[in-house]
User: Fold this.
Amino acid sequence: MALTAVKTMKNNQTTQTEEVLVYNTKNLNLWYGDHHALKNINLDIKEKDVTAIIGPSGCGKSTYIKTLNRMIDLVPGVKTNGSIEYRGRDIFSKEFLVEELRTRVGMVFQKPNPFPKSIYENIAFGLKIHGIKNKQIINETVEKSLRGAALWDEVKDRIHEPAYGLSGGQQQRLCIARCLALEPDVILMDEPTSALDPVSTLKIEELIQELKEQYSIIIVTHNMQQAARISNKTAFFLNGEVVEFDSTETIFNNPADSRTDDYISGRFG
Amino acid sequence: MEKIERIKSEEMIGRIDSRLVKNKVVKSIFFAATVFTSIILIVLLVRILTQGAPYLSWDFLQNFASRRPEQAGIKAAVIGTVWMMSVVIPTAAILGVGTAIYLEEYAKKNAITRWIQMNISNLAGVPSVVFGLLGLTIFVRLFGFGNSVLAAGFTMALLVLPVVIVASQEAIRAVPSELKEASYGLGATKWQTIFRVVLPYAIPGIATGSILAFSRAIGETAPLIVIGIPTFVAFLPSDVFDSFTALPMQIYNWTSRPQIEFHNLAAAGIIILLGVLIVMNSVAVWIRNRYQSR
Assistant:
C-alpha cells in the first residue's frame, strides 16, 4: 500500500500538467526554541483538493498549517529549514512578500475572530487594507462573500450591526466570508469547528463541500469523522512527522501504517 | 500501607467559634482603616470648603494676582495651567503612545528591551523635583526657553511620560492576539494592523491611563518651583515662549503669605484645582464605561 502511495505521488510530480500542486513541502523542519516540532515533512497538496490534517494534540498539525501562510512568524523563537513552495515559489524567500502570500492564501482560525466592527466592515476590512476604496465594489464584494459563505440570507437585514451579535457558527462563517472577499486561491482552516456546536459544525462542513469547487482547502481537524466526511486527501501527523498521506478513503479503510490504524480506530489520541 | 488516623469532625466543629472570632476581629481592623482614611479626607475637604468657599466668586476667577487679598484672583493661574497642559498633553501623548507601540509591537523581546522597560518603570518613581532639575538644565538653560510655558510643559510631559507609556503598553497588550492574527491573515502589514485593529481596541485604555497621568501634571508644584516659574503674574501668556504661572504655584504662593486672607484664597484656589481634577477623572471614567459596554 505504502509503495503504491509513493508511486502515485511520484507520478503527480512528473505529470504536473494534469494535477497542479498548490503546495510542495520538502524536508521541512521547524523548531520552537529547542523543541523540534516538525520533522522532515514532505507533503504535496493538489489544487482543488480538500486536504485534511489529522493527529493527536501536539503532533504539529496546527504548526504546519500556520507555516503554510507564515503565521508562524508571529511566534518568537521559531526556526525553520527545508522548503515550502506555493505554486513553485519558495514562501520563505525574500522576494515572496508575506503580505502577498497571506492575500493569496486565506486563513480561518480555531476560534471565530471577527473584528469588533459591523458585519459589513469585517468583510470590507480586507479590501480596504489592499487599497480598494470604491464603495460599489466593496458593497458588491460584501454581498458576494456573504452569499459565498452561506450567511447572506441570515444577515442581509443587519449587515451594519456589530458582528459580535452573531452566534458562534455565524461568526465563523463571517470569518470565512471575510477570507473569500479577497478571492484567495487556498483556504487554510485550523480546526474551524472545534469551538462550535454540532448544528453549526454541520453548516460549516456543508459550506466546505461548496467551497471546494472553487478553492483548494487545507483543514486541520481533531474530529476524524469530519476528516472522513469532507476531505479527499488525509495526512496523519504524529510527533511532528507525517506518518501517512494518502486519499482519505485509503487512510480510513486501508491504512498502510499500523499507527494510523491505531489512531483512526481510536486506540490513542 | 500505613494507617492514617481519621480526622474527628467533632474536634473540627469545636474550633468554629474561635475561627469566627478571628474573622470578626480582622473585619473590624479593615473597617477601622477605611473609617480613618475617610475621616481624614472629609476633614480636609470640609476645612478647605469652609475656608475657601466664601472667596469663590466671578471676580476671583476674573482677577489677576494682587497685593490686596480682596482684589486677588486666579485668572493668570487658571489660564497658565491651560497653556501648560496644551503643551503637556500632545507631547506626552505622542511620545508615550509611540514608545508603547514600539515596545509592544516592534521591539524584539531581548535583554535591551527588558532593560529599557525596567528603566521606564523606575522613572515613574523618580521624585518630581528631579524632573524639575532636568527641566532646568535642559529646557530652561540649554535650549534657552527660560521660565516659559514651553519649558514647564516639556518638563511636566517628561514627568508623566513613564505613566503614559506603561498605561498605553498595558492597553496594547490587552488587545486579543486573535484579532491581530485575523488582520495579518488577510495580508495586512504591521502598521495597518496597528492602526486599524490594535489602536482602536486600545484607545479607551490609553485615554483613561493618560488622563489620570495628565491630572498629576496639573497638581505638581515642585518641578515648577525648580524651573523658576513666577508666582506673581499679572498678565496672560501670548505664546508658549511667554512666562506664566500655574494653579499649584499660585496656591503655594498664597499659603506662604502671612495674612490669613491669603490662606483663605489658597483654599479657594484648591477648590478650583480639585474641580479641574474631578472633571478630568470623570472624563476618564466616562471613556472607560462608554467603550467597555461595546
Q: What stands out?
A: Residues 59-292 of chain B form a domain with the MetI-like fold fold (CATH 1.10.3720.10). The mean pLDDT of chain B is 90. Residues 16-52 of chain B form the longest helix (37 residues).
